[in-house]
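It is worth pausing here to work through a concrete case rather than discussing structure prediction in the abstract. The textbook approach is simple: state the sequence, then state the predicted structure, then interpret. We follow exactly that order.
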Amino acid sequence: AALLRGKGGPAWTALQEARRLAPEGHPHRERTQAKMCWLLGWAELQRGNLAEAGRCLAEAYGRAGGQSELELVILLAQARLAWVEAGPAGLGRRRPPGLELAQKARWIGERGGYVLHLADVHNLLAQMALDARSPTLAGRHAALAQQYATGEDPSFAYALALVEAKRLQAAIA
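Step two, the predicted structure:
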């Protein structure tokens, strides 16, 4: 929850405690470690520790073992990292840093039907398109993000992704 709210510090602290408490010899240890590395990488990204974020995310991807949903969220985090690392130098570029990673995450999400993750992917793609000065493309991605976040029943919407999609649409207008 802290990561979704952009609070990398508290998330990092909780993850360190979870890592300490993780049982040895658990039958799903590799998957658990991959998730832990992904979450730590995401927390490090939010804390601004980009090199450590990259290390954690690379380890997570190596441990993911072809598990598509896990690969999707790791690729999305790696795309965010590449985009953040580029900083102002990445603005205005037709192919923003991290675009290929985000597109690969999108492909996995579409193939696997990971609707909520697709809302996050399209929000990132919308922000990248906005930064690349492609408002039409940004609008399409923001609309798709809103559609995925809302789903079939608006009372069960993915609120954080929906708020972000609406923020992006307002920035485009």
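Step three, interpretation. The helical segments are 8-21, 29-47, 50-64, 68-86, 99-112, 115-131, 135-150, 159-172. The chain has eight helices and no strands.
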